[in-house]
Every structure is written in C-alpha cells, then in structure tokens.
Amino acid sequence: MDEMMLQKCIDAGLRMTSQREAIAQALDQSYDHPDAELLYERTNKIDSTISLATIYRTLGVFERAGLVQKVDVGDGKSHYETARDQHEHLVDTENGQIHEFKSEELTALLSQIADKMGFELTSHKLEVYGKKHGDVSCRCIQIKVY
Ligand SMILES: [Zn+2]
Prior knowledge:
Number of helices: 5
Order of helices and strands: HHHHEEEEHEE
Bound molecules: zinc ion
Largest sheet: 4 strands, mixed
CATH class of the largest domain: Mainly Alpha
C-alpha cells in the first residue's frame, strides 16, 4: 500500500529523491484532503529535513504529472488528494467535512453541456457546498475530514 504513490511516480518517469519518496509515502497514508502544511507535518515524521517549500514544489510536480489533485474546500487553502476515480466533493459548510460522491447523472449532464458547446467532455472537477437539513443519510462514498 505504501508503494502506491511511489510506483505511480516511477511509472510517470519522475526522478525520485528520498525526500520525494517521503512525501509520496505521507500522501499514501493520508485518507483525507490535507493542505500543504498538514502534509508537511506528516512528512516530517518520516523525514525531518524536508522544508515546507519542498512540499509545495513537490506537490506541484506531482500535480503536473497528474498524480495528485487540488481540492478547493472554500477555506482559501489548496488541499490535495492522490488522483483516484472520478468523484465529486460536497463540503459541509457547518463542520468542514467533505463528502465524496459519484453521480452518473451529473457526468451525463456535463457531457451534454459540453456537447452543445462543440466539445467532448474529457474530465471535470466540482466542489459543492451545502448545509445539512433533516436526518437524511448522505449516502456518499465516504466522509473525509480535513
Ligand atoms: Zn476526494
């Protein structure tokens, strides 16, 4: 499991230093959507020589290689997650919890919109913000706390 990101980095042809390996490992161990500072804290438990600047730089490298994605949860910081299956985020504005969900209807609708504009949908990114009402189960894939 710890090799997941590392293997993807190697497959992507990235030059791996021990620092990059530590950051990849910290990302693998993150089941939430950490921002750079939180990732810095986690990475430092593996390798205390890594600076916050290196974290930012490496996240940029991983992002350009398509291995991590930025998630905007509305707090003004960039949060990150390792690239996984297409899913959307619904952010609970009252407690900051991120509910991950998938919706075929949404993908179909977006493809229709793109089609009308003369485009073929290749990917999309969506963050939805909301406030819970009533006790309906959210039925999301998983709730992640950032
Ligand atoms: Zn996510």
